[in-house]
Amino acid sequence: MQRARDFLSLAEEDGKPEPVPKYQSPFEEALEHIRYIVRLRVGFDPARLRRIRDSVRMSRRELAGLLGVEQGTIWQWESGNVFPPDDRLSHIEAWIRMVEEEIERAGG
After folding, report:
1. Cα angle vertex 95, ends 81, 87, to 5°?
2. What is the pLDDT of residue 108?
3. Residues 58, 68, 36, 93, Cα dihedral to 10°
4. Cα distance between residue 60 and residue 26, in whole Å
5. What is each CA distance from 69 to 51, 72, 73, 74, 84, in whole angstroms?
6. Could you give phi then psi for residue 10, rounded to 5 degrees?
7. How many Cα atoms within 13 Å fall on the side-chain side of residue 42?
8. What class, spelled out in words, does domain 2-12+21-105 have in CATH?
9. What Å distances lie between residue 89 and 23, 26, 27, CA to CA?
10. 75: exposed, middle or buried (C-beta count within 10 Å: 0-12, 13-18, 19+)?
11. Distances (CA, A) of 50 to 10, 24, 33
12. How confident is the model at residue 51 (pLDDT cuts 50, 70, 90)?
């Protein structure tokens, strides 16, 4: 897991979560819905983020430190209430892929 942490320092859960943000206007609601659909299509899965984090026994605080966000932000992402911004999404996906590869190499 150290390799995953080094990488980030440089640079069940079936089903899809429903976002529950508060909107200022119908336009913002529609825009957020579009963003939600786009993120689902590119593959962000809040449950997967939590599963992977739990599988390596990493706390939300630790993951937040790696990604440069607050601990509560990780909770919001994992709950599906808020989706990561694009700049963080690429880091999250890279971290998940790296952890999954390490788990696979370890035979687990």
Report:
1. 60
2. 59
3. -60
4. 33
5. 19, 8, 6, 8, 10
6. -90, -75
7. 14
8. mainly alpha
9. 22, 26, 24
10. middle
11. 22, 29, 22
12. very high
Q: Tokens 């609601």 — which residue?
A: 29
| Token pair recorded at residue 16 | 């899809």
* Residue in this structure with the two tokens 């979560």, named with its chain if needed: 17
Instruction: Dump pLDDT digits (tens) for 35-49.
Output: 777 666 566 789 999
DSSP 8-state code for residue 19: P
Q: How many Cβ atoms sit within 10 Å of the Cβ of residue 104?
A: 9
The answer to whether residues 60 and 75 touch, using CB atoms and an 8 Å cutoff, is yes
Q: What is the mean pLDDT of the chain?
A: 77
Phi, psi of 93 (to 5 degrees): -65, -40
Given a contact cutoff of 8 angstroms between Cβ atoms, the answer to whether 52 and 99 are in contact is: yes
Where are the domains positioned within the chain? 2-12+21-105
